[in-house]
Automatic annotation (TrEMBL):
PANTHER family: ARAC-FAMILY TRANSCRIPTIONAL REGULATOR (PTHR43280), TRANSCRIPTIONAL REGULATORY PROTEIN (PTHR43280:SF32)
The name this protein goes by in its record: AraC family transcriptional regulator
GO MF annotation terms: DNA-binding transcription factor activity; sequence-specific DNA binding
Pfam families to which the protein is assigned, alphabetical: HTH_18 (PF12833)
Keywords annotated in UniProt: DNA-binding, Transcription, Transcription regulation
UniProt superkingdom: Bacteria
Listed InterPro entries: Homeodomain-like_sf, HTH_AraC
Domain (HTH araC/xylS-type): residue spans on this chain: 176-278
PROSITE patterns per record: HTH_ARAC_FAMILY_2 (PS01124)
Amino acid sequence: MSALEKFGVEIFTQHNIFERISADKPFRPENPAFIFIKSGTIKLRQHFSDLELSANMFMVTDPQTVYEMVSVSGDFQSRMVSYKREFISALSLKFNRLITYRYFRQQMNKGVPFPENEMEVVWKSVNFLKYILDSDTEMLYQKEMVEHLFSVFCYQMAGIISKEDNNFMNQMSRQEEIVFVFLTDLAEHHLTEKTVEFYAERQSVTTRHLSSVVKSITGKSASQIIALIVMNEAKVLLNSSNKPVAEISSILGFSDQYAFSHFFKKHLELSPRQYRHQFES
């Protein structure tokens, strides 16, 4: 049984992080996580932008996002704290909104440096939590220690994120807010709703206004981003499951397999079967 199943939290280092971060194809994390970089660099593609993280930076990953690893340096040193969402749900809504906003800023390709002294403190907390999680000997109150240490870690992160992001969040422009809500809605509804009209109506704005604002903030139109999200879903389903193409087209909300294949080929110039064949050993 993994630590994640047993305790609700698991910690990976640079030696085994690629068990969870696929190095050669798009992937979706099963659980949310914090990734801390102590040294070296890693570049990840997420939705419509590349995010490069270097020493003393961290990011949050979300199971609603499809990622693709672009590159990693030889001196890469990291910790990934992966956790079950219910393990953190007891924390305040304010903290969860901060996490969501931090994630939104990443989508805008805005990695934020982490003060080195704060990284040192968090690094020690994470390593101590890992020591308790990995203990081979029977440890009295191990579960309770994990829960309390994880809470300490979360409050550390809440303090750091609040300090860094609260001002930005309060200063979010109306345009950024429109994009923020669009991306949040899209993460929730993209399997059933693929029109710009639906997302514009959700915010009581015109399709022209939504597209214009999204383009000005992200560099891509609303329809391009919708297509990207759906394509990323399709890639993950094709390369990480044995589901038939017809079933995948149904999951993705297409009327039939042919509509899905036409959509996929239009955006990638490969059929779904040709794309899947690339990852077959």
